Amino acid sequence: MKFARRQFLKLFGASAAMPALSRAAWPQVYPTRTVRIIVSSLPGGAPDISSRLLADRLSTRWGQPVVVENRPGAGGNIGAAEVAAAEPDGQTLLAAQPAPLTTNVLIYRKLSFDPAALEPVIVMTTLPNALVVRRDFPANDVAGLTAYARANPGKVTYGSQGIGTTPHLTSALFAHRIGAELTHVPYRGSGQAVNDLIAGHIDLLFMQVDAVR
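The chain above was modelled as a monomer; its predicted structure follows.
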């Protein structure tokens, strides 16, 4: 997950990425009021939890309120668009999965914001994806899954947090590598996808480890 700001806040980026700098080198006028962190996913996921932990520390350090607001949907594009349209004063920050800043521009026909208007500050967390399947899936290893998917084109379904997200692209790459046709079922958040997997409504997920442990 990445923490992004409007391009103009060079000094804030330095203070966030290099905390060893002396306080005298930090911009003394920032922040001047409540700072908003827009999270481009639903509450409870890794971006949300990381942002709330960070917000608590920053509020203490800065002496200003830091609030977290969730704007999920469209593979992170909704939250990213809100931050890109905000005043470039560093008071509105984005906490997002990589997609809005990296792959979405290649996947969506048109974005309502320019990813170049956002610049990364720090990487808050890194999480590997794990392959999980519903409990009663008719295969118990990757070889069996591959054979079943090839024999049943389009019938094996996989979930993700939305088009362009890492789970979506990982699953699409997996389908390409094994030479099988899988059907994508996008959700607004990891919690919804995991719940449907447990209920047996979808067959598999490539999902970040924290969501499926």
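The beta strands are 2-6, 35-39, 66-70, 92-96, 118-123, 129-133, 157-160, 183-186, 204-208.
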